[in-house]
Amino acid sequence: MTLTIRQPLPLLDNDILRTFVAIAESGSFTTAADRVFRTPSAVSMQIKKLEEQLNATLFLRDARSVSLTESGETLLPYARRMLALSNEAVGRFRMPEMKGVVRLGAPDDIGERFMPTILRRFAEVYPAIMVDLTVDTSGQLRRRLQEQRLDLTLVNCAPGMVSHEGEVIHTEQLVWAGAKCGTAHLRDPLPVSIWEDGCCWRADALARLDKEKRPYRIAYLSAHTMAQRAAVIADLAVAPLPRSYLTDDMTALGSRQGLPDLGSFEVRLLTGAETSDTIQAVADSVRFAFSEMIGIAA
Questions:
Q1: Residues whose CB falls within 8 Å of the CB of residue 41, separated by 6 or more in sequence, listed in order
Q2: How far apart (Å, rounded) are the C-alpha atoms in residues 171 and 159?
Q3: Half-sphere exposure of 5 (CA within 13 A, CB side)
Q4: What's the CATH class of domain 100-297?
Q5: What is the reported pTM?
Q6: Based on the number of CB atoms within 10 Å of its own CB, is 94 exposed (0-12), middle (13-18) or buried (19 or more)?
Q7: What is the pLDDT along the chain (298 residues), one digit of tens a residue?
Q8: How large is the angle between the packed helices 277-297 and 115-125, nearest 10 degrees?
Q9: What stretches of 23-73 adopt beta strand conformation (E)?
Q10: Separation CA 268–CA 156 (nearest Å)
C-alpha cells in the first residue's frame, strides 16, 4: 500500500495578518502602510503572499477604493482573533501588572464613529484592562468626572472656551451639512437639525444665523448625530456637523448657498484626580488612535 504524505498547511504570519486587518479597516493600502510602518509596495507584497498561501483573492481594488471579497470577509474575523490571542499571550508576560478597570466617557458623535475601533485596538494591546464606556453629553460627562464616576473623558467644546481644561487632541471645522442635490437650505425659515442648549455646535450655528438675520426653525431635536444625519440625508433639514462626518450622500453648504460660514470646535481629553498606569495607558491609546482615525476621516 502506498502511503500518501500530505504537505502541512502553511502557517499564517501575524505581521501579514496585522497588515490585512489594517487594510480592511482603513479601506486603503497607503493608509494601512502608514499604520503598520511599512512602504505601500511592502504591504502589497505581504497581501500577495497571503493570497498565494490561501489560494484566494482577498481584496477588490479600483482607482478610488479597496473592499473585501467574500474570501476576505471570511478571513477577517479569524485574523482579528489570532492577533488578539497573540497579544494576550505576549501581554501576559510583558505587561502582567497592567490590569484593572478604567471608566472612559465620550460624547455621542465620538462614541458612535470612533470608539468601537479604538476600544477594539486597545483590547488587542492591553487584554487585561477592561474599559467601561459611558456615552453622554459633554456637560454630563464633565459632571461625572467631577463626581469621580469617570476616570477620564473626551468632550467637545468651542475653541478657547475652557483653555485651562484638559488637553486639545483635535480641532476641526464645522460645516452646514445638507443632502446631496437637496433643497432644505432654500426653505424659509431654514429647517435645522440640532441638539439642545449646551451643545457647542448648536451655539455657534444659531449665533451665526442670528447675526445674518436668517430666519430658522428647529425642525429636529436629537442628542444623537445619527438622527441628525438621518434628517439631513432625507433632505428635511440642515445640520452643523464636523466636515469629516459628511457621508457620500451629504454635502457641505456655506456662503454660496446663503448660509453663514461656521467656526471650528475642539475635542479635549480630561482626566480626573486619580491617576494610575492603567488610566495613563487608556489616555495614551485614545490620543494616538483618535488623532490617527480623525486624520483618515478628514
A1: none
A2: 8
A3: 0
A4: alpha beta
A5: 0.68
A6: exposed
A7: 565 666 788 899 999 999 998 898 788 898 889 888 899 999 999 999 999 999 999 999 887 778 899 999 899 888 888 887 887 777 677 766 678 899 999 998 888 888 888 898 888 788 888 999 999 888 899 999 999 999 999 998 887 665 567 888 888 889 999 999 999 999 999 999 988 666 778 888 999 999 999 999 999 888 778 888 889 999 999 999 988 888 889 999 988 899 999 988 888 899 988 888 889 888 888 887 665 655 444 4
A8: 130
A9: 59-61, 66-68
A10: 6
Inter-residue contact 76 to 24 (CB < 8 Å): yes
From-to residues of CATH 1.10.10.10 in the chain: 14-95
The number of residues making up the chain comes to: 298
Centroid of chain to Cα 71: 26
CATH 3.40.190.290 segments of the chain: 100-297
Give CA 155 to chain center in angstroms: 14
**Contact between residue 133 and residue 115 where contact means Cβ atoms under 8 Å apart:** yes
Residue 52 cell numbers, joined: 498565494
Residue 75's φ and ψ, nearest 5 degrees, are: -75, -35
Nine-digit cell string for 65: 477604493
| Domain topology for 14-95 | Arc Repressor Mutant, subunit A (1.10.10)
Strands (E), the chain: 59-61, 66-68, 100-106, 129-135, 152-157, 167-179, 190-194, 216-221, 239-242, 250-253, 264-271
